[in-house]
Design a protein that fits this description.
By secondary structure, this protein is α/β, with parallel strands linked by helices. It contains seven helices and six strands. The N and C termini lie far apart (48 Å).
């Protein structure tokens, strides 16, 4: 109720205007080369492959981010965008990313799902250097975060993209980066262990989920199995590491 009362009038219009301007003319579809034609209707069937950036590469990426006043997320977003653009043969990409959406201290202690999704547009048409790309991604990410109050479904409503049952609107690739979770907890008299669950569904073509544990950066690359073979996605994961290594070495 508070949010509905707060996000009105000029405040609401400013958020809508930002997203209209940010995404105006952006490509509606990330045209990745796929192993099979895109079906007319998504089945949401999916799979995952592991992604591991070893300690040396992870340290290099962190140092690169620090030198340019960027966060680890921004640097990984730059590398992911380079790879997606190269694979798709496009000069700009739109990548979705989840945010906690808890900007106010009053909601920090509340239980509930506050998360929102932002559509981050990255341009590579000017063939930017690593420094230029990081500066662009930094500015774009900060601006998007400043306008994260507008729910994603309202962004879609405001932009009115051509809708298709074959793919999600505005973006089809996602990046999620998190810090390492707390260590395994213990309970008196009980042995507790994690059970890994197999992912057999996905909402997007490609979803890169990474966690930084302070040493390596690891996670998984989730994919739409209607489009990609596992072997293809493993190559994409390996290519991502190669792009980051080139960014670190060739700055």
């Amino acid at each position: 109720a508070w949010q509905r009362g707060w996000l009105q009038g000029e405040r609401l219009q400013a958020q809508v205007d930002f997203w209209r301007g940010h995404l105006a003319g952006a490509p509606a579809l990330l045209e990745l080369p796929t192993d099979r034609p895109r079906p007319a209707v998504q089945s949401y069937a999916g799979g995952t492959v592991p992604v591991v950036l070893d300690g040396a590469l992870a340290a290099g990426v962190r140092a690169l981010a620090e030198r340019h006043g960027a966060t680890l997320f921004m640097t990984l977003m730059a590398g992911w965008s380079i790879l997606l653009a190269r694979l798709a043969g496009q000069e700009e990409v739109v990548v979705g990313t989840p945010v906690a959406n808890r900007q106010r201290s009053e909601v920090e202690g509340l239980i509930g799902f506050f998360a929102n999704t932002l559509a981050v547009r990255v341009r590579l048409d000017a063939q930017p250097t690593v420094a230029q790309l990081l500066a662009q991604v930094r500015a774009t990410t900060l601006a998007a975060c400043e306008h994260q109050d507008l729910p994603f479904e309202q962004v879609v409503e405001a932009l009115q993209p051509v809708r298709s049952m074959s793919h999600s609107p505005l973006f089809q690739a996602v990046l999620s980066v998190a810090s390492a979770s707390e260590p395994d907890f213990t309970l008196a008299g009980l042995a507790v262990s994690r059970i890994e669950q197999r992912h057999t569904s996905t909402h997007f073509d490609l979803t890169l989920q990474l966690t930084d544990d302070g040493n390596a950066i690891s996670g998984m690359l989730e994919y739409a199995s209607d489009l990609f073979d596992e072997s293809t996605v493993r190559r994409i994961a390996a290519n991502f590491a190669c792009v980051l290594a080139a960014m670190v070495a060739g700055e």
